[in-house]
């Protein structure tokens, strides 16, 4: 298939593009051109400004793609600027668990319904992040019902390639004796591995599933468990201080996402325990503790 990827040059987007290439698709990546990629001649490239309707029209006005995988749709205007200026059979948006208001264990897709939510055309800075992501989904499903569309909702995506370094913050702080101001030590946190996130998007792009769909690894972990593991592996103790650096997962409530739709469609996510401790081992080495 002829597939357009918006984004795809870093983090889980790289895994997605590699999976699409491996599966034999004709892939074009559209970015601002600021981040180099290692795809070589395996992809075509288009330079765009994602938040500009004029740029979208100039880049895509006469083009058709079988599938568009959009990692860069943050608000309703982002969706509008693209889908008003491109022809595609299928559209896969990377969304977020942030669309859910009430966080708890086993959240199902029905707990945020973009088909009935009030649509507001907005830009990225008009509302807080959860609301602009709700509006992006709402625009997709309400304003473009003729498009065969999917919104993939992920919790926290992490991996060695996580440029946000959220989990690394805790490991590095313990290894190097940096005081941390953290809370919610016993809250259950869900994750999805960056490689699995990218591979899942590539996988769902080839299916006929439509609508919102959750994706996360099986199981959760607490900050207490994370910190205990690093302390045992390094023989160092976490330093807690109200004056310390604020933890990236402060304020998180226990939750995870029900992945029945993914399972029923034939996809299985791995157990969180299978890889998260290995990731922490890599972060320990990165922090200077061999």
From TrEMBL:
Keywords: Carbohydrate metabolism, Galactose metabolism, Isomerase, NAD. GO terms for biological process: galactose metabolic process. It comes from the Bacteria. GO terms for cellular component: cytosol. Its cofactor is NAD(+). One of its GO terms (molecular function) is UDP-glucose 4-epimerase activity. It catalyses: UDP-alpha-D-glucose = UDP-alpha-D-galactose. Belongs to the NAD(P)-dependent epimerase/dehydratase family. This is UDP-glucose 4-epimerase. It comes from Vallitalea longa.
């Amino acid at each position: 298939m002829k597939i357009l990827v918006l984004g795809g040059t870093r983090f889980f987007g790289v895994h997605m593009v590699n999976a699409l290439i491996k599966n034999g698709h004709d892939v074009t990546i559209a970015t601002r051109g600021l981040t180099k990629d290692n795809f070589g001649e395996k992809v075509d490239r288009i330079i765009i400004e994602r938040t500009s309707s004029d740029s979208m029209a100039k880049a895509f006005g006469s083009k058709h793609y079988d599938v568009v995988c959009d990692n860069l749709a943050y608000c309703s205007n982002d969706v509008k600027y693209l889908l008003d200026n491109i022809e595609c059979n299928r559209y896969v948006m990377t969304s977020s668990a942030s669309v859910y208001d009430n966080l708890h264990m086993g959240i199902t897709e029905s707990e945020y319904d973009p088909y009935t939510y009030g649509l507001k055309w907005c830009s990225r800075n008009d509302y807080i992040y959860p609301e602009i992501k709700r509006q992006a989904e709402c625009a997709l499903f309400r304003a473009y019902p003729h498009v065969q569309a999917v919104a993939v909702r992920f919790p926290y995506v992490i991996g060695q390639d996580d440029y946000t370094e959220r989990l690394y913050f805790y490991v590095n702080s313990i290894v190097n004796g940096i005081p941390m101001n953290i809370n919610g030590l016993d809250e259950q946190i869900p994750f999805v591995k960056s490689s699995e996130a990218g591979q899942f998007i590539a996988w769902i792009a080839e299916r006929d599933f439509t609508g919102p769909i959750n994706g996360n690894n099986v199981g959760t972990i607490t900050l207490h468990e994370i910190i205990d593991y690093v302390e045992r592996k390094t023989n160092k103790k976490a330093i807690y201080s109200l004056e310390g650096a604020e933890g990236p997962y402060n304020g998180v409530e226990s939750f995870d996402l029900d992945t029945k739709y993914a399972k029923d469609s034939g996809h299985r996510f791995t157990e969180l325990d299978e890889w998260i401790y290995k990731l922490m081992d890599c972060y320990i080495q990165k922090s200077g503790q061999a």
